[in-house]
Amino acid sequence: MIRLVSFDVWDTLLKLDVMLEAIAKGISRITGFNEEEVSVKIYGVRDRIREIRRKGELSVREILGLSRSMLAEELDVDEEIVRRGVARAVLLIDYDELVNDYAEEMLARLRRLGLRVIVIGNVLIWESPYTRLLLEATDLAKYIDRQYYADDIGYYKPLKEAFHIPLNDLGIEPDQAIHVGDSAIEDYMGALESGLYAIKIDPSIDKVYKKCDKGYIAPDLRSALRIINDLLGRS
Predict the structure, then answer these.
(1) Residue 235: pLDDT above 50?
(2) Is the pTM above the cut of 0.90?
(3) CATH numbers and ranges of domains, the chain
């Protein structure tokens, strides 16, 4: 029986593109640089860091530091400018635009079903307190029992520890939990290999696919909720 649902944050509950564009705007306002050019560099660093992170050779703290230093180098600015750009992004961002479709309704419904709801998130360029602030500002945090981030627990998804530490903390067995996220490797495969049920959100498809005994691919959060309801034996 499913007792807990865990969520990735970026591109699952909140829109990553909106955050990255806000960072580009923040940095451009500080430096006078062209916002579009800053944005291109941010996306480039993000993609490079993700590849480095997946090799598993660096610690969480090292990855955070490297992502900021790489972006600062790309922009030819001091790393403090990157930090300020992130801080400004939190002030400038449109909170309504930031939230993914159906995210609040899904979280509210899961709580009404009596399920525990948590976040298991990786970090990149900015530390988890900024993400916590944004979940508070968008009013999503009130539906979330606990938030677990890589810079808090010391492990990135898809490592098993990233999933097992939160479950052990809450006294939940892996087969009593389902993880929802957008990444095929970090969320979907990471959860499955850790013994959880998994739902990968893939907007490019138009219906739900059951890929294995515990694995599902869904086009959106509304479909993900239907999967969870089915697993609970509810209509």
Answers:
(1) no
(2) yes
(3) 4-14+100-232 (3.40.50.1000), 16-95 (1.10.150.400)
